[in-house]
Amino acid sequence: MKNIKYSILDLAIVSEGTTLKDTFDHSLALAQAAEEVGYSRFWLAEHHNSIAIGSSATSVLMGYIAEGTKTIRVGSGGIMLPNHSPLIIAEQFGTLGILYPNRIDLGLGRAPGTDQLTAQAIRSDFYQAAQSFPLEVEKIQRYFSTENADAKVRVTLAEGVGVPLYILGSSTDSAHLAAKKGLPYAFASHFATNHLMNALQIYHQQFQPSKVLEKPYTMAGVNIIIADTDEEAERISTSLYKMIIGLLTGKRGYMQPPVPMTSDLRELSKNPSVQQMLKYSFIGSKETVKKQVQQFINDTQVDELIAVTNIYDGKDRIKSYRLFAEIMKELNGEKE
What we know:
The protein has 336 residues and is α/β, with parallel strands linked by helices. Helix content is 45%, strand content 15%.
């Protein structure tokens, strides 16, 4: 098997009984632990108007994580570009790239990362901006280019600063764009599972080499919950199941503490909508999850896995990520 990188996507999930400052500190502690065990990058996702998600001001939180770590790459997974002016994003990420050289990633998506009403509050012309996503990405690229030095509109903070771009997708649309531009492609298969295989196929078939990438590079999101036993992992996963059920039923709230898996919750977890959303969720002991991860890599042939571990307790989360790193090192044939 080729050497597969492994990374983290964090939403700064707010658990019941904790403050937002606690949550940010937990994210930093996780990033520091991830750095120790060989994770390639730590990405934060942009979401808005959600009581349980603390990563709304994504670039600000990235600065906090980058300042508290030394080597791990820190990035956006992603910045929802239609919410923003490309010039402002180039200024923010150019600044981060100067402060933390060769450590900042800019992942770009076109979804709002919120509900329709909030999307309108963020930017009244959001839907027009979403339609212009390819052109908005071009603006970002131009602002980071040294060739923009003669332009009337410049982002001097970004020109020549090494901040690689990634195109994010949850459908097949962005696969075409990432392939056309010769950019790395990250698919949100940790919740949008329907189009993963089609999107990867489109990207590979249509990929055009670019200055930044000679051959296709793919990343895929997976939900990972690992504990000492299958039973303990199942218990911890009840927090995730309750969160997903809450999302689907419009009853959003803080991440709830885990409970023993009840017959009622097990029945709800078998709902087709829940099953579809959590299709690529690998939950169990290290031995159980290793087999599932190996199969996923064989099926997708991705270059990098980006793990999402949304569970209640910060210590359980760090333990799960440490065990996942052990799995990836074993699959990659690395010796401890």
